[in-house]
Amino acid sequence: MQTTLKSPASFEGVGLHSGRPAVATIRPALPGRGIRFVRTDVSGAPNEIPALWHLVRQSPLCTRLENEAGVAVATVEHVMAALVGCGVHNAVIEVDGPELPILDGSSAPFVRGILWAGLRQVDRPLRALKVLKPVEVTRGAARARLSPHDTLVVDFAIAFDDAAIGVQEKSLNLSNGSFVRELSASRTFCRMADVEAMRRQGLALGGTLENAVVVDGDEVLSPGGLRHADEAVRHKMLDAVGDLGLAGYPVLGHYQGERAGHAVTNALLHALFDAPDSYEIVTCDVDTAARLPGVGVRRSEIPDVA
In terms of pTM, does the model score above 0.85? Predict the structure, then answer.
């Protein structure tokens, strides 16, 4: 069974990097349409951008999609993670600018909007991407790997000099509602030492202490501190879930990331699709579908911060 929303859900805020106000609305979509972005502010050119791995264009610090006409939308990873984590397979995300709103820097507001809009199952077979053989990419000290598994499992490891982050590792089986409970509220993060450098490059113009975790050495500067002691690695896992959502199918596989970012995870998808013997597209039976992210998730599991 494929899943879409029962009704639209809207979100308003600024773009993290552009600093521009933006309104995004997630709307129900017909079965088989997958996830698509629509730039409502664009006329005179195709404004629909499928949420697919091969349309990712290099962009620092976020995932940016661009269609063949050059129409782009940035910072899609948090809403993609929310859709994957809530088990939504078909949706149209309308946005009136070049970047999704950052909201609180996590996926939790998107999750709340999706679950309050309600989910509707459609009597149409659901297909998934099953990893058959390990695929791995490395970029300097960063590494990402996909290997066979009967559901989606994400492992991640990070290491930062700042004591407020330090070395963190976490592993999570994404079956059912674990994304909503364990990852969705974890916010994007950065070091204070990097903030001014990013702004000189025209990045993080919409960033504040309210929509990102900012650390300086052993100090957390954002009001209220951390939502989890290991919030940083949880957010990296959240990003990986969103970027894997661009495969175009639910992924049945074990993702392992070490210091990996958006570009490395996208390179991993390129390597996977470049090796046709490393995966197959399967029709989910009842048991397989029951192990996918989002199955059985309830509103009561939405984090209090959302």
Answer: yes
